[in-house]
Design brief:
2 copies of one chain form a homodimer.
Chain A lengths: L2 H8 L3 H9 L7 E4 L2 E3 L2 H15 L5 H12 L5 H12 L10 H15 L9 H15 L11 H16 L6 H35 L10
Antiparallel strand pairs in A: 1-2
Helix pairs in contact in A: 1-2, 4-5, 5-9, 6-7
The structure holds a DNA duplex (30 and 30 nucleotides).
Chain lengths: 216, 216
DNA sequence: CCTCCGTAGTGAGTGACGCTATCCAGCAGT
DNA sequence: ACTGCTGGATAGCGTCACTCACTACGGAGG
């Protein structure tokens, strides 16, 4: 398959495919001669992965590069790959405010309280958690301590366990794709479902006339 | 309080405060004389809200405008405000692929199956759910039908109900802030917690030596 | 009264990002 | 030889979220 077919087959504009090649997000094709390169199904899959990350996960291109580096680094254990993927996916933490130190302590308390002793001490998501907790704390909520997060922690634990147990690929590229779908796409699904659930429950609680939808 | 104090007090650069004023995200100050305007605690709160939305939720400025419009539209019920906030927060759906129609059907099945009959027929999150499901379907997962989403739906239902029942402000501005914190910040918290849980469980499952952290 | 600092508002400019368009030399097929 | 495509390089574009510089004033100090 040549580059134009690759572009057409994946629905990505040719210029963008070239851009990804240039950026090293897509490995170069196999040279057939000095002016023709051959691309295969692996390239198609990679391209699909990249577009999913961009469109569903809004992952910036620089992070895509990190993720690609992870997939191509043989010798990483499954756990290393997943942790690296999480680190690449995690957004940069907002700049710290005055309560960040207290928020960091609360975050550590949450992680410990959940029993998540497999979380690395330097995981960037620790700081992300602290940043989010800082906002909650400064808005006055969470005054009863981190135990108010209990339902969230329990839900996260359940879903996280489920996601990990459902990983079953042995090919590193397929594993990577599974993890990405699991983390990015299912993460979005979770957010969307929660918003839908909120919409429903707020309708039940706050809408004066009960749902005016005629029975279908 | 004058504009420079407002900026200093909230930690936002003066030029950015002026930009937000220009964009209508921040209401103009009360004129003291032709060259001096007075800003109050409401402006500080609004500014904090805007920064939270930007930094934690990565909400684009154009969406902030929508949200501001919602807060200032008296006469909306609590449910309307929440639905409008959800619509403003929801990211734009990725362009549809070939499986989108099937994904839409699956999304409708999920919403119905969850019993969320309070969800509006035109809620943009329906399309977002379909877009995410399309990706999952095209990657081959979810072949057993939408029932594989059960744990996600249940978690979302639990958390969504919790979020709605914990709303208790009567002042519309405070209510808006509560909803924003609930949706954006707790949404991020949920994603972060899930990543941390995945990291822990993958450590338990995949890391050859069990967590090598010395007991503290 | 004059000088000078600070203020509110405005238009233009900046830098990052993610593409996209144009150009080029070179081969393949006719 | 000519056409049409290839891969690659370079430069440019449009959007976004600010950020800068400037203006015209108002008020305080001397």
């Amino acid at each position: 398959m040549r580059i134009s077919e690759l572009a057409e087959h994946s629905g990505v504009p040719l210029a963008t495919v070239k851009y990804y090649l240039r950026e090293g997000l897509l490995p170069p094709g196999r040279w057939v001669n000095a002016r023709l390169a051959e691309y295969d199904a692996g390239h198609v899959a990679r391209l699909r992965l990249l577009r999913t990350l961009r469109e569903v996960g809004a992952v910036p291109v620089s992070r895509l590069r990190d993720l690609v580096g992870v997939t191509e680094d043989a010798g990483l254990s499954v756990h290393d790959v997943l942790a690296a993927a999480a680190a690449a996916i995690a957004p940069p933490a907002p700049p710290p405010g005055p309560l960040r130190d207290r928020a960091r302590a609360a975050a550590a308390e949450v992680v410990d309280g959940a029993g998540w002793d497999g979380v690395g001490a330097t995981s960037p998501d620790r700081e992300n958690l602290a940043a989010a907790l800082e906002v909650v704390m400064s808005s006055g909520a969470l005054s009863g301590g981190p135990s108010a997060l209990r339902p969230y922690v329990e839900a996260a634990d359940t879903l996280g366990r489920l996601d990990v147990t459902s990983l079953d690929a042995e090919d590193p590229a397929a594993l990577m794709e599974q993890m990405v779908v699991g983390q990015i796409v299912f993460g979005q699904i979770l957010l969307v479902l929660r918003r839908l659930a909120e919409e429903h429950h707020s309708s039940v609680r706050f809408r004066d006339p009960p749902p005016p939808q005629p029975p279908r």
